[in-house]
Amino acid sequence: MVEQKAKPNVSVRENQGVSRILIVDDDPTIVQMLSDILTDEAYEVATATQSLRAFDRAKEAQPDLILMDIMMPYLDGLDQIKLFSLDDDLKDVPIIVITAKAHALDGIEDLRALRIVDYLYKPFEISVLLEKIRSALGARR
Questions:
Q1: Which pLDDT score is estimated for 7?
Q2: What are the chain's domains?
Q3: 48-89 confidence digits (pLDDT tens)
Q4: How far is CA 127 from the centre of its chain?
Q5: Distance CA 22, CA 133 (A)
Q6: Residue 93 contacts by C-beta under 8 Å, 6 or more apart in sequence?
Q7: Among candidates 49, 83, 59, which has minimal Cα distance to 8?
Q8: I need a labelling partner for 116 at 20 to 30 A (CA). Which of 29, 55, 71, 98 fits?
Q9: For residues 133 and 50, what is the distance between their CA atoms, to the nearest angstrom?
């Protein structure tokens, strides 16, 4: 799957309320499904299917929200989120974790400090995902 690039130099502030969402998941089927759903919902979408590319894609896309898988090869999603939290451009971007691992967030003391605003376990209902996205984006404004 080819990673989708967001339109350059277009932000939620310049594009009349169109929010940009970065999807980070190593499963191309999930990335495509989420991308299709979010595009149909009028969101602008960027994707990263390799955890090692997620930081660069986030810097390029300047997303308003990140959907992040936790279990990925090379660099897991939690380590990636910690990298985001150290970057001035990305540290305030809210993150929704999507994971198949039931206890992936156990033991993390302060999810809010990492900008993890919500989570979903796979498989999930699309309506629940969309509500969580709307809530996360609404809280950001």
A1: 42
A2: 20-140 (3.40.50.2300)
A3: 998 889 999 999 999 999 999 988 888 888 888 889 989 999
A4: 17
A5: 12
A6: 58, 63, 64, 65, 66, 84, 115
A7: 59
A8: 29
A9: 22
Distance CA 100, CA 90 (A): 25
Residue bearing tokens 């919500």: 118
> Looking at the predicted structure, is the pLDDT value of residue 23 above 90?
yes
pTM of the model: 0.82
- pLDDT digits 0-9 by tens, 86-135: 999 999 999 999 887 665 555 555 555 568 888 888 889 999 999 999 99
Residue for token pair 């590319």? 53
Contacts of 87 (CB under 8 A, 6+ apart): 55, 59
